[in-house]
């Protein structure tokens, strides 16, 4: 059993609880033990980062300093956390002027960061550490014939593309195929859902979500798998109003990718919290 | 620094402030190499809703007219998808530059009052500063109240109820134990900035 330090992120305690629960269940089942980072704080998130970058990075710097003491890879389930933690790590190991400022700020709390933490996304761990053979060996109910739209969102593959192409990543496609499912190809799989714009620019954001949903449905998807809490809620919670607005009826089940993995591993509602999703997945669950 | 802009251009104060903050962005010098090709604008999922397109930001900066960008809706339309950054043939990290512009706009009160993003960001930062984590419920409630939009609030109520029933909307915020440490870190950071 390989061990990882787990950074759930704030939404894991609220809007994306099903993601947190299913991520822990699935990781443990495939031999990746997630040990929660003690007393972690907000990563700084895009909303904070984009207006007060230094303070946001100072937030993430504390997480990195705490994680470094544990001497394990730091695993997130949120693209936003992944992006901010990675960027902060980059800043604190690079030559820019921020490095010294952040190090000094950490010292005020008797913390230091030497730059040894590897920030990972759980998808990366499942695909590249656990790997195809081990995943396939754990599958008890193959998702044969399940047409899933793999949706990557933004801040995992961009800005850096640490594992896979920044515009056409494939890791989630691979994982889905190991489960027996059919990942559908659609050109928008790494396009933006609008993120926090759903709260502040709903009209603009709804248009982006409409495009994503319609591309996935046109490609024959019967459900969609997300890697990010915010993508999940944007795609899941506004389908009714987007249907009314754009005159196309959407009723697409939106899963956290860990829920799909768990389904193939034979897990039930207690481990996956499918009943806490807003979209209906009973028909799909009944098939496997 | 003169090589950054066309010769003879009059720096506005905003341009100077921008250059000072920009120096914290890794590889910021690449902004000098913008060839105005428009790949950023074409790649941006929200440029159609922006008053000034991403390409024009660099153009206006060179013309000493950045203040116009800050007073437009442009910087608040960016969803941080980083397409502009990965596709720019000159390697300019425009998405990061957008963050610099946003913080300038907020710091110097240069945004238009009707913009909602600054209000959301303020609530977000306030909640995180208070608890060390983002208490989503409190953050969003404060935001909608601050917008004084009963209609917007009512629209969210149905969704909030559904989320609450599914245990996805906890009512009470949870503070971290290291809150005092975070305060110390932030205080030191502020002190450094003023030095």
Outline of the structure:
Chain A is an alpha/beta fold. In chain A, 49% of the residues lie in helices and 10% in strands.
Task: Write up what this structure looks like.
The complex is a heterodimer of chains A (288) and B (195). Chain A is an alpha/beta fold. Chain A has 14 helices and 8 strands. Chain A has helices at residues 17-29, 45-49, 53-70, 79-93, 98-107, 122-138, 171-178, 197-200, 202-218, 229-237, 239-246, 257-264, 269-272, 282-287; strands at 2-7, 32-36, 74-76, 119-121, 147-150, 182-183, 223-226, 254-256. Chain A starts with a strand and ends with a helix. The model of chain A has no long low-confidence stretch (mean pLDDT 96). Chain B has 195 residues and is mainly alpha-helical. Chain B has 2 domains: 2-107, Alpha-helical ferredoxin (Fumarate Reductase Iron-sulfur Protein, Chain B, domain 2, Orthogonal Bundle), CATH 1.10.1060.10; 117-194, no CATH class. In chain B, α1 (13-22) packs across α7. The longest helix of chain B is centred in the C-terminal third of the chain and has 16 residues, at 150-165. The two termini of chain B are 23 Å apart. The interface between A and B is large, with 66 and 63 residues.
List keywords for this structure.
heterodimer, A: 288 residues, alpha/beta, Glutathione S-transferase Yfyf (Class Pi), Chain A, domain 2, Rossmann fold, four-stranded parallel sheet, 8 strands, 49% helix, B: 195 residues, mainly alpha, Fumarate Reductase Iron-sulfur Protein, Chain B, domain 2, 2 domains, 11 helices
> Could you tell me the number of beta strands of chain B?
0
Helix residue percentage of chain B: 55-70%
Percentage of residues in DSSP E strands of chain B: under 5%
DSSP summary: helix tally of chain B: 11
- Number of strand elements of chain A: 8
The residue-averaged pLDDT of chain A reads: 96
User: Given this structure, which CATH class of the largest domain in chain B is correct?
Assistant: Mainly Alpha
Low-confidence stretches of chain B: 1-10
Mind telling me which CATH architecture of the largest domain in chain A this is? 3-Layer(aba) Sandwich
Please outline the major beta sheet of chain A.
Answer: 4 strands, parallel
Radius of gyration of chain A: 19 Å
Q: Based on Cα principal axes, name the global outline of chain B.
A: globular
Which H/E pattern describes the elements of chain A? Answer: EHEHHEHHEHEHEHHEHHEHHH
Q: Bin the helical content of chain A.
A: 40-55%
What is the CA-CA span between the terminal residues of chain B? 23 Å
CATH fold descriptor of the largest domain in chain B: Fumarate Reductase Iron-sulfur Protein, Chain B, domain 2
Helix/strand class of chain B: mainly alpha
Oligomer designation: heterodimer
Low-confidence stretches of chain A: none
- Provide the residue-averaged pLDDT of chain B: 89
């Amino acid at each position: 059993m390989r061990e990882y330090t787990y950074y759930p992120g704030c939404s894991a305690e609220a809007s994306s609880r099903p993601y947190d629960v299913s991520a822990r269940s699935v990781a443990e089942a495939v031999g990746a033990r997630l040990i929660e980072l003690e007393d972690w704080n907000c990563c700084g998130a895009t909303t904070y980062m984009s207006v007060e970058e230094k303070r946001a990075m100072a937030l993430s710097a504390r997480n990195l300093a705490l994680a470094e003491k544990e001497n394990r890879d730091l695993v997130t389930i949120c693209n936003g956390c992944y992006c901010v933690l990675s960027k902060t790590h980059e800043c604190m190991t690079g030559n820019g002027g921020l490095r010294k400022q952040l190090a000094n700020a950490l010292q005020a709390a008797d913390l230091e960061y030497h730059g040894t933490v590897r920030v990972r996304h759980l998808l990366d761990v499942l695909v590249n550490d656990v790997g195809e053979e081990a995943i396939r060996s754990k599958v008890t109910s193959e998702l044969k014939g399940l047409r899933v739209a793999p949706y990557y969102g933004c801040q995992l593959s961009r800005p850096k593309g640490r594992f896979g192409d920044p515009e056409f990543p494939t890791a989630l496609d691979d994982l889905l195929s190991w489960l027996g499912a059919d990942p559908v190809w659609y050109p928008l799989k790494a396009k933006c859902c609008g993120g926090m714009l759903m709260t502040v620019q709903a009209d603009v954001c709804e248009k982006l979500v409409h495009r994503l949903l319609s591309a996935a449905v046109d490609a024959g998807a019967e459900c969609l798998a997300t890697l990010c809490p915010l993508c999940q809620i944007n795609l899941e919670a506004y389908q009714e109003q987007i249907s009314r607005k754009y005159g196309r009826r959407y009723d697409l089940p939106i899963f956290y990718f860990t829920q799909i993995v768990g389904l193939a591993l034979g897990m039930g509602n207690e481990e996956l919290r499918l009943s806490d999703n807003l979209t209906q997945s009973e028909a799909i669950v009944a098939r496997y | 620094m003169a090589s950054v802009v066309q010769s003879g251009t009059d720096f506005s104060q905003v341009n100077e402030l921008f250059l000072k903050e920009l120096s914290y962005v890794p590889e910021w010098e690449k902004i000098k190499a913008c060839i105005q090709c428009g790949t950023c604008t074409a790649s941006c999922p929200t440029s159609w809703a922006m008053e000034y397109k991403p390409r024009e930001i660099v153009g206006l900066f060179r013309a000493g007219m950045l203040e116009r960008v800050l007073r437009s809706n442009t910087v608040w339309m960016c969803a941080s998808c980083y397409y502009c950054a990965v596709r720019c043939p000159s390697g300019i990290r425009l998405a990061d530059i957008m963050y610099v512009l946003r913080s300038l706009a907020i710091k110097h009160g240069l945004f238009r009052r009707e913009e909602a993003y600054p209000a959301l960001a303020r609530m977000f930062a306030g909640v995180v500063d208070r608890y060390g984590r983002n208490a989503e419920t409190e953050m969003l409630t404060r935001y909608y109240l601050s917008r004084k939009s009963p209609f917007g609030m009512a629209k969210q109520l149905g969704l909030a109820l559904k989320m609450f029933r599914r245990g996805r909307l906890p009512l009470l915020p949870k503070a971290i134990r290291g809150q005092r440490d975070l305060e110390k870190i932030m205080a030191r950071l502020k002190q450094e900035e003023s030095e």
